[in-house]
Design the sequence.
């Protein structure tokens, strides 16, 4: 997945190690630098973005704080390695395994003997490590233990009991042909979401009269020695508001999931500030996965991230989680929410209305795309749909969603006379 | 970015030399910090790196910068971020009206030599310095404390602009050249996380998540910041707020709300909490109607009962 140049990496590693040695020899540390480097590599393998620059920073920070107090040392490394709140858990676990239990690796070696498995493995040893940390630690034992590495690997699996969570169904998507990719791009380029661009507080040059740009006018006046002052104009820039896509991937939506993911991927790569979430029985943020340029890779990652494909739906609970955890983080700048769901809820719409109301109040515009419309006489009568209907700004039902082109056509339809069309649907929901 | 580039250090005169000293320093400014925060702050000062503080609203992120400037005797320069913040209001702007007058004067005296006029017009006299440029200038008392507050409120282009400033502490003004800070300022960046800040910017900073304080620390904060509240009342307030934070609310009360509430109760001449008072003053703690409706009445009485039972079981200190 990641392209690598082994020579460049090796050279970089050598340089990093040399520089770290240099830093440390000044402070008299011995194996500390080496250990920090191993620790940094462990973190990197566990998915934290740790580069050589950070390793050096970490050594510098450790030298500055000293190793007299464990908590100081912890927070010094924390300040360097952790960039986001959600990385704290992984850092914390890795730190404690790596630094508190220097005998951890020895113990693993001891586990090769069956009898010591029962004795040595007390409660403390069975801490359910996050899988990524466990994998990272396994792959990154310091080299001088290299010879025993392979045997140890087998045993680590025996001690580190991480719990496999409920579920678990992952989704495989057919790969796209390059022809399909090209067509998808064309369709998305022509897509006009029913979202108006909004003026932002930045300016652009304008040929026609708007506001005077004093700085540019001043400069152009200088060109003529100050006798004439041709006015230069500027206007407000316009920009798409951020877009948040919440997509239902429960069983009833199963046949659309590939299509919808393609759509989300295309939109993510087409404009900035798009956040994508999947929900079924739980909420998954797949924004980072979809940023991969390659559509197959992106879909594969997204498919692996969400664990509840084609299961039930708990719309209310998922929206509640979205509102609580993500709402304030992604809806901050007047975002438009595109909610893709058929409104069929396993929990009989428990708590759904309240959460819809909260969501509606937190965003600029809430658009509900419903692919359930199998026949013209459809009315949003399921409990879920009834709860959702009063709180959307725009309702887009669609027959037979078979292609991206259909989807784009539905979304590109200009909004009908404001609220009039919607009022008809709300009435249907009440009837 | 290699370590060598970042070794430009702030003036170390008067800066704390250990984590304990940072704790003492903050303590002298009435800021009760936990050790993790003090460690990061110590590192930021020692390594000359910007400190990126993220956390819920009202946990004391901005306060750190204020206390630092006060206790270190440095000038505090604050840049409040908002959407559309641009170079002309963050870094510098030319004083156009004065430039216009200058052009007129040049005309009146008949000297319209282009080069001299240009160099006259783009002179320091006509430069309006905005917070970021001020922070690069030497200040009395040493390098200033630069507070970039609520960075998440700006847009991405401004973040990108900050990259150069925060890593090299220099800014370029086309007409004047590059302004470089002799002593880099102490930079504190705060964010309420209404959106994610780009990794490139975070990478240049030391990161710290400022969480809600423990009960013990919150009592210490109340004692320092609201000394007029009697100890028994303060203990009840902290007990109640701490319990409130365990309830699944939309917006949990921060330390600022705790202090406001203590202040409000003192103004109402209360020496102990009772259910009616809690109900009446809940708006100081909770700012969403859903949350208030949920807590008001029986839930508040239940939490209060727990607090008072606990206080009774534990003799006052």
Sequence:
């Amino acid at each position: 997945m990641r392209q690598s140049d082994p020579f460049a990496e090796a050279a970089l590693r050598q340089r990093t190690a040399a520089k770290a040695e240099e830093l440390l020899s000044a402070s008299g540390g011995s194996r500390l630098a080496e250990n920090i480097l191993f620790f940094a590599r462990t973190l990197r393998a566990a998915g934290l973005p740790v580069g050589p620059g950070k390793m050096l920073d970490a050594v510098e920070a450790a030298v500055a704080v000293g190793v007299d107090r464990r908590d100081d040392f912890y927070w010094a490394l924390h300040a360097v390695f952790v960039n986001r709140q959600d990385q704290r858990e992984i850092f914390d676990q890795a730190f404690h395994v790596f630094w508190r239990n220097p005998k951890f690796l020895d113990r693993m070696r001891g586990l090769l003997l069956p009898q010591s498995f029962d004795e040595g493995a007390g409660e403390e040893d069975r801490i359910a490590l996050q899988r990524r940390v466990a994998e990272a630690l396994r792959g990154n034992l310091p080299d001088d233990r290299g010879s025993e590495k392979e045997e140890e690997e087998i045993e680590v699996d025996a001690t580190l009991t991480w719990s496999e969570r409920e579920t678990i169904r992952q989704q495989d998507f057919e790969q796209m042909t390059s022809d399909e990719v090209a067509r998808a791009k064309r369709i998305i380029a022509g897509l006009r979401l029913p979202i108006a661009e909004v003026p932002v507080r930045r300016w652009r040059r304008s040929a026609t009269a708007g506001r005077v740009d004093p700085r540019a006018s001043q400069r152009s006046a200088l060109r003529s020695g100050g006798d004439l002052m041709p006015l230069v104009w500027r206007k407000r820039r316009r920009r798409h508001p951020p877009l948040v896509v919440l997509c239902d991937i429960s069983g009833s939506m199963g046949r659309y999931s590939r299509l919808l993911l393609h759509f989300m991927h295309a939109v993510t790569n087409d404009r900035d500030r798009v956040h994508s979430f999947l929900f079924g029985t739980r909420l998954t943020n797949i924004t980072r996965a979809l940023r991969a340029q390659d559509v197959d890779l992106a879909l594969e990652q997204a498919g692996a991230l969400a664990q509840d494909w084609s299961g039930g739906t708990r719309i209310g609970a998922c929206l509640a989680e979205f509102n609580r955890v993500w709402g304030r983080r992604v809806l901050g700048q007047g975002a438009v929410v595109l909610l893709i769901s058929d409104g069929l809820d396993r929990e009989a719409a428990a708590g759904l209305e309240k959460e819809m109301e909260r969501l509606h109040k937190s965003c600029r515009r809430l658009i509900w795309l419903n692919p359930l419309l199998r026949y013209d006489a459809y009315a949003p009568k399921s409990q879920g749909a009834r709860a959702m209907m009063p709180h959307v700004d725009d309702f887009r039902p669609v027959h037979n969603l078979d292609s991206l082109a259909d989807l784009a056509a539905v979304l590109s339809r200009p909004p009908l006379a404001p609220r009039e069309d919607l009022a008809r649907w709300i009435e249907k929901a009440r009837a | 970015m290699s370590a060598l580039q970042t070794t430009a250090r702030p003036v170390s005169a008067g800066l704390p030399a250990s984590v304990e000293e940072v704790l003492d320093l903050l303590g002298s400014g009435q800021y009760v910090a936990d050790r993790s925060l003090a460690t990061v702050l110590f590192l930021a000062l020692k390594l000359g790196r910007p400190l990126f503080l993220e956390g819920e609203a009202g946990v004391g992120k901005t306060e750190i910068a204020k206390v630092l400037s006060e206790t270190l005797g440095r000038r505090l320069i604050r840049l409040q971020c908002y959407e559309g913040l641009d170079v002309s209001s963050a870094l510098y702007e030319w004083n156009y009206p004065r430039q216009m007058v200058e052009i007129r004067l040049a005309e009146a005296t008949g000297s319209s030599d282009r080069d001299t006029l240009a160099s006259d017009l783009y002179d320091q006299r006509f430069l309006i310095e905005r917070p970021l440029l001020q922070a690069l200038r030497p200040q009395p008392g040493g390098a200033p404390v630069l507070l970039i507050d609520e960075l998440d409120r700006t847009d991405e282009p401004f973040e990108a602009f900050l990259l150069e400033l925060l890593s090299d502490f220099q800014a370029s003004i086309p007409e004047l050249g590059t302004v470089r800070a002799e002593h880099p300022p102490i930079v504190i960046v705060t964010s309420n996380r209404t959106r994610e800040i780009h990794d490139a910017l975070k990478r240049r900073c030391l990161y710290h998540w400022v969480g809600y304080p423990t009960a013990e620390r919150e009592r210490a904060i109340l004692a320092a910041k609201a000394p007029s509240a009697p100890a028994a009342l303060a203990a009840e307030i902290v007990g109640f707020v701490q319990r409130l934070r365990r309830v699944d609310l939309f917006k949990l009360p921060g330390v600022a709300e705790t202090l406001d509430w203590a202040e409000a109760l003192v103004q109402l001449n209360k020496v102990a909490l009772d259910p009616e008072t809690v109900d009446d003053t809940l708006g100081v703690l909770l700012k969403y109607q859903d949350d208030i409706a949920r807590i008001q009445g029986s839930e508040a009485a239940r939490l209060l009962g727990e607090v008072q039972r606990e206080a009774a079981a534990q003799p006052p200190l």
